[in-house]
Specification:
alpha/beta; Rossmann fold; 7-stranded mixed sheet; 7 helices; globular; binds S-adenosylmethionine; rRNA (guanine-N7-)-methyltransferase activity; EC 2.1.1.170; methyltransferase; rRNA processing; SAM-dependent_MTases_sf
Length: 220
């Protein structure tokens, strides 16, 4: 007999077990409600390139949650958040984490604001604007991006926004050796963690980058 297709709830629950992440049933329900909202608004607003709702659990929810064990500190900035990835799943899983979602596209930030209200996410704030122009009152313990830009273009405009002991979390496919070689002086790769995301083929890596504070001496 052919195997019955898993429901999104089953797929999420099994994926979380595989990732070693424990989440209360209410948080799992909120994650699925977010995926449904994303699917509904995607038709009108082009929020993500991924149009297959069957892949939303693996490629959006689990892919975002895979970095949960690697978060630093109590504040997180998600740069180029688009439809809220990875920021919204992380905010749902960690209600004590203050998450700022930033994107320059006002249709996307309208969706993000609506989603935060509908899902009751009190720990999420949304900023519409280019990262280059963002001047927050406080620096962030962690700054994350997925599918935003090459590493140098991620760290340069966010360098002044990172707390002294903070770190950048760059979600990548293959290890981007050429991008690493182009990192600005003083920014170093502190660790590279391979991530096995259930239901996602192909390699995924999380890079943790740190600012050593060292700058190239003048004239060199
Ligand atoms: C390919 S999408 C990735 C969205 C999401 N992180 C994901 O993984 O699905 C890149 C996003 O970056 C935003 N973006 C591009 N340049 C930006 C900038 N300079 N400042 C802020 N957002 C920017 C775009 O509007 C877009 O939503």
């Amino acid at each position: 007999m052919p195997k019955a297709r898993q429901t999104p709830a089953e797929q999420l629950a099994q994926g979380l077990v595989a990732l070693g992440i424990e989440l209360a049933p209410a948080a799992q329900q909120t994650l699925l409600a977010y995926a449904a909202l994303l699917d509904k608004w995607n038709r009108a607003f082009n929020l993500t390139a991924l149009r297959d709702p069957e892949k939303a659990v693996s490629h959006h929810l689990l892919d975002s949650l895979a970095i949960l064990p690697h978060l630093l500190g109590a504040t997180l900035l998600d740069v180029g958040s688009g439809g809220g990835l990875p920021g919204i799943p992380l905010a749902i899983a960690r209600p004590g984490l203050a998450v700022t979602l930033l994107d320059s596209n006002s249709k996307k930030t309208a969706f993000l604001r609506q989603a935060a209200i509908e899902l009751g996410l009190a720990n999420v704030s949304v900023h519409c604007g280019r990262i280059e122009d963002f001047r927050p009152a406080q620096p962030f313990a962690a700054i994350v991006s997925r599918a935003f830009a090459e590493l140098a273009d991620f760290v340069r405009p966010t360098r002044a926004l990172l707390a002294p002991d903070g770190g950048w979390l760059a979600m990548k496919g293959l290890i981007p050796h050429e991008e690493i070689a182009r990192l600005p002086e003083g920014v170093v790769v502190s660790s590279v963690t391979p991530l096995a995301v259930p239901g996602v083929d192909g390699e995924r890596h999380l890079l943790l980058l740190k600012d050593t504070g060292a700058t190239r001496p003048e004239g060199v």
